[in-house]
């Protein structure tokens, strides 16, 4: 017998009962972000591999071992996008968005792909909501980005949220600090995990992320980047913090915060939820002033974040539900019933038709299940008995148009 077909490991189907909370989350995010002037952008699901190699950073885990890359028939290397920022920056440059009033404020919602080991809250195909603000180095941009993600997480009821905040300074500060850190790690090589030792030159900052006992002990005494910030970076960071305080958004300073992407400079942040277990990061981001230049564009300051849809839903206390009401359930299966449903839909009502050949009793049960506001019992001669299920009244109406007018009138009361 042929093996049973299943979705690949690390992927999942969104079934109808899961589609509703996802849609509600998207709706909330859209309301919050578009309310603040962000506009939706959609970029392709695959891009030239080079975009991520240059954009995300050749030494990152993502580029080193997590990309789904393939060669097309023209021998070009393409990659399923592992994150959204590099693509949005590519689109910003490609479409000359620097000519528009800046900063450009863009948001997205879509699937991303990383060949990571699948586990609770970690998938090979996952969805992200992201927001990017391109063209301003104002600390208000950093603070506003953080506040908007905070607002979304609060609106959907994500539990046990903590915001960790840090600053990476400029690339120059980082380079000097990096040398200091590499020297420190070299001096303690014997106590570190093999993996950290192997990557000392490639990515020494990741040593702060290690779970290995010996490494953690060494890192407790390691030099801290925040202590090495240049005065202007420190001042920028203070301005961001003052705005978060003004907005009433609490945070914990975390001088060891590192994220798996190379392009960050200055502000860096991450929201975690303590109900998520090992994969506790709900969303995060930061400032990436050097990225557009690194991709071949004109130096352009920018800041942004991405949050995982699955993790937001997993950690939300009350799964958000959309308020899709059924205004009218049309009982009766004849052509007159069908005509009434069509007319009511054209008038903007949410209408459901009887499609399963139920008995009259079964039809009323179905209407109750759908919590229909009205039930139209349509006879084959076109006469309609219109029941208002909230008021508990039934009226005879002479036509489909009269039934629709009646429901619409009630709606605007
Ligand atoms: P990153 O781009 O790594 O900063 O990820 C941003 C957010 O996307 C994380 O905080 C997670 O919520 C989510 N995320 C990243 N990778 C995965 C994954 N493999 N599976 C599910 N969610 C993910």
Provide a concise account of the structure shown.
By secondary structure, this protein is an alpha+beta fold. The chain is built from 14 helices and 16 strands. The strands form 3 sheets. It has an 8-stranded mixed β-sheet with strand order 1-5-6-11-10-9-7-8, sandwiched between helices.
Mean of all residue-level pLDDT scores: 92
Task: Please report the number of helical segments.
Answer: 14
Count the E strands. Answer: 16
| General shape | elongated
As a whole number of angstroms, the C-alpha radius of gyration is 27 Å
**Residue share in helices?**
25-40%
Distance between the termini: 62 Å
Q: Uncertain regions: pLDDT < 50 for 5+ in a row?
A: none
Strand order of the largest sheet: 1-5-6-11-10-9-7-8
Helix and strand sequence: HEEHHEEHEEHEHHHHEEEHEHEHEHEEEH
SS class: alpha+beta
- Cofactors and ligands present? adenosine monophosphate
Q: What profile does the largest beta sheet have?
A: 8 strands, mixed
Strand content: 15-25%
Keywords:
413 residues; alpha+beta; eight-stranded mixed beta sheet; binds adenosine monophosphate
Helices and strands in order:
Elements lengths: L15 H20 L3 E2 L5 E3 H7 L5 H6 L2 E3 L5 E4 L4 H10 L9 E10 L11 E10 L4 H17 L5 E7 L3 H17 L6 H5 L14 H8 L10 H16 L5 E2 L13 E7 L7 E7 L3 H4 L7 E7 H7 L12 E4 L3 H12 L4 E3 L6 H10 L4 E5 L5 E5 L4 E5 L2 H12 L2
Parallel strand pairs: 1-5, 7-8, 12-13, 12-14
Antiparallel strand pairs: 2-4, 3-4, 5-6, 6-11, 7-9, 9-10, 10-11, 14-15, 15-16
Helix pairs in contact: 1-5, 5-9, 12-14
The structure holds adenosine monophosphate.
